[in-house]
Amino acid sequence: MPRIPRRLPSPALVVSVVALFVSLGGVSSGVVSGLIGSREIKDNEIRSRDIRNNEIRSIDIRNNQVRGRDIRNSTIQGRDVALNTLTGLDINESTLGQVPSAAAADSATSATTAASADRVGGLSLRKLFVKQAVGTAATEVQSGPGYVLEAGCSAAGGVLRLRGASGATTTTVNVQGNGEGGGGAFSDSDSNLEPSDALDLLGGNAAGAGTAVVSTTSGELSTLMYALEESPGFEGEAVCAVRAITLSG
Fold first, then answer.
1. Quick one: which of 159, 219, 225, 243 could link to 152 by a disulfide (CB 3.0–4.6 Å)?
2. Per-residue pLDDT tens for 76-97?
3. Around Cβ 102, how many Cβ atoms within 10 Å?
4. What is the pTM of this model?
5. Is residue 199 pLDDT above 70, yes or no?
6. DSSP assigned state of 204
7. What does the pLDDT read at residue 111?
């Protein structure tokens, strides 16, 4: 029986087979050992579905790379923002609602404690300041429940008096004051102030200050705290000056 001669592989074939196994082993070794880097991955090939949930950390994201367009609407909550990190520049004020406790503040006319308010503790508050030149006849400068306040200025001194208001219920007035250019301290009263009366709030003095309490039988009460300076009420001005604060309620 004839023998079939053995043919040994050529050196080129041996080298090529060895190279093939080495290359295959190198790729698998790289996969197993985790040596695939970003350069082995084609750009834009990694999708969110390729990443396990909760695997991306803040250290994996470059600073200032996340923009508003990268965040889904209504997904950022208060717990996601560090305390005291938002400022007025970060907030659109027009989107904010009104604070409930301030709803009445826009048009408030009352206050329990205030430097200047229309009402204080349930009482109406009014301020009065009048300058009148010498020779000004007494004229109405204020009115209230049951009374009319008149002021004037003459060369002899100021005029400040109360008259009853037309159509008012019975009105009572009590006055305490201190004057200058006359008898000094004084007090007076009128149990039925009428429009024809002229109750002198200066007690016959040329100037003075005092308090008048006006009450009506309908339950209205006004307190006038006043002062009048005779001419010159201001340096270089031939005027009388009247100042008053009135509380009514």
1. 159
2. 877 778 887 877 777 777 777 7
3. 9
4. 0.53
5. yes
6. T
7. 47
